[in-house]
Structure formats: structure tokens, C-alpha cells
């Protein structure tokens, strides 16, 4: 075979291989709790580099995401910041039950905008109302968003809720509550420990006792009518070594299975 013909054939084969690879690449659409942003940014990049597939991640409060899925929004994987919203989707037959797994754990903390704020022990004796004065306590929506639900439950169990409830500034999701404190719009807030780790402009004053609220668990599952192959591949990746390291760097506890 002459050299020009051989070159043309080699180029054709290479292009065919590239086309085949592109045809096989998958895109997975992931609805994930807002508190997962930093970890999911890293994991999404590594997933694409490692597999050639891509992950499109939509971040919001778990309640908003679950309602979008109930309304028919196209998603392949849902990662909730609490079991309740996953239970709601399972009850509606919207997730593949056999794919559901408890992925991560977290804690909630009291944060301050003041970098010199003195750490406190969070007990029923904490003078939280006095610490606030006339200012606001930033929290995610306390009746819908998991971080807000956990925070309210913790304050109620410690006997602190009634005094501070009128001063709570509720945000659509936990990252929005974090931003209120980071920018100084609220002096104090309640967020996940992982959110505080991700934001240099807040100071952790204390961690809420584990027995003041239910265990914080992040379940993940495949959406029933989503792209099953892409979803299962991504869920497996989330449980692998690369994702585990990314989650742990952000302060999450990776749950044993």
C-alpha cells in the first residue's frame, strides 16, 4: 500500500475510534443537596477524567430537588441531605429502591462571622438569644430543608428554640444560610460542619451534640425512569476510593456498607 493511502487509512481508523468513544460516552444528571457543592465539583471533574463520561450536577435544597423530581424533572441520581425526602420519592415509586444506599454522614455547627468569636459549648445553658442581641440567626428553611430541620430539632431539644425563633432568618438552602454569615448579614448561623469547612469567612463556635438531633445521613439512589446505566456507573463511582477521599477532604463521614 502506498504511503498516502496508508496515511489516509490510519487517519480514518483513528477518527472511527474517536467517534466510537464519543458515542459510548454517557452523561449522568445528578440532583444533589447544596451542602455537597465542593465535593461534587471535585468528584464531577475526576469522574469525567477517569471514565470519559460526564456528570451534570444540579445543586439546591433537598426539598426543592425532591419536588422537582416529583414534578417530572429529568434526573438520573438523587443525593439527599436526609432520608425523609428520599423516603418521599420512594413512596411515590420514583427511585429504584434496590439502588438506594446511605452514602455520608455530617454534623451541624454554630458559626459566627466574627473571626475572633470565642468558642462555646452548646448545651441548654447556652445564652444564644443574648449572643444574638437584636440580630438574626441564619438557618436553612426549618420546615423543609434538612439542615434547617436538624438545626431546629437540636435547638428544641436543648430548650433554646422558643427564645430565638423570632430572630431566625430562613434561607432557601444551607449554602444560602452560610452566605448570610460569611458576608456579615447575620452574625450567627447553623450549618453543616462541611459548609463551615468550605467557607473561610466564618468561624465555628461549637458542634451540636449528636443526641440533640437525628443522625445526619445522606442517602443516594437512582431515579426510576432515568438513565439506568449512567446512574449505576456514577453511584458506583461515588462509593469508590476517589470519591471517598474527596468527601473526607470536605469533612464528611463516609458510611460503611
TrEMBL record:
Keywords tagged on the record: Metal-binding, Molybdenum, Signal
Keyword Signal: yes
Protein name per Swiss-Prot or TrEMBL: Molybdate transport system substrate-binding protein
Signal peptide: 1-25
Entry's Gene Ontology cellular component terms: outer membrane-bounded periplasmic space
Single Gene Ontology BP annotation: molybdate ion transport
Recorded superkingdom: Bacteria
GO molecular function per UniProt: metal ion binding; molybdate ion binding; tungstate binding
InterPro entries (alphabetical): ModA, ModA/WtpA
Family: Belongs to the bacterial solute-binding protein ModA family.
Subunit structure: The complex is composed of two ATP-binding proteins (ModC), two transmembrane proteins (ModB) and a solute-binding protein (ModA).
Keyword field contains Signal: yes
Pfam families attached to this UniProt entry: SBP_bac_11
Residue sites binding molybdate per the record: 35, 62, 147, 174, 192
Amino acid at each position: 500500500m502506498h504511503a498516502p493511502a496508508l496515511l489516509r487509512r490510519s487517519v480514518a481508523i483513528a477518527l472511527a475510534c474517536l467517534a466510537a468513544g464519543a458515542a459510548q460516552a454517557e452523561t449522568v444528571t445528578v440532583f444533589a443537596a447544596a451542602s455537597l457543592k465542593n465535593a461534587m465539583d471535585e468528584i464531577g471533574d475526576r469522574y469525567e477524567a477517569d471514565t470519559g463520561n460526564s456528570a451534570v450536577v444540579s445543586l439546591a435544597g433537598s426539598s426543592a430537588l425532591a419536588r422537582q423530581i416529583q414534578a417530572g424533572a429529568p434526573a438520573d441520581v438523587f443525593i439527599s441531605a436526609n432520608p425523609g425526602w428520599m423516603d418521599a420519592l420512594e413512596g411515590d415509586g420514583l427511585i429504584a429502591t434496590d439502588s438506594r444506599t446511605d452514602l455520608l454522614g455530617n454534623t451541624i455547627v454554630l458559626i459566627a462571622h466574627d473571626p475572633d468569636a470565642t468558642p462555646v459549648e452548646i448545651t441548654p445553658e447556652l445564652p444564644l438569644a443574648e449572643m444574638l442581641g437584636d440580630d438574626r440567626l441564619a438557618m436553612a428553611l426549618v420546615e423543609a430543608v434538612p439542615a434547617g430541620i436538624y438545626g431546629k430539632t437540636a435547638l428544641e431539644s436543648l430548650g433554646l428554640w422558643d427564645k430565638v425563633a423570632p430572630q431566625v432568618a430562613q434561607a432557601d438552602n444551607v449554602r444560602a444560610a452560610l452566605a448570610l454569615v460569611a458576608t456579615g448579614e447575620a452574625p450567627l448561623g447553623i450549618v453543616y460542619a462541611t459548609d463551615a469547612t468550605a467557607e473561610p469567612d466564618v468561624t465555628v463556635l461549637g458542634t451540636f451534640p449528636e443526641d440533640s438531633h437525628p443522625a445526619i445521613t445522606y442517602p443516594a439512589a437512582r431515579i426510576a425512569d432515568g438513565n439506568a446505566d449512567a446512574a449505576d456507573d456514577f453511584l458506583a463511582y461515588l462509593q469508590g476510593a476517589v470519591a471517598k477521599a474527596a468527601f473526607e477532604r470536605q469533612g464528611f463521614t463516609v458510611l460503611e456498607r
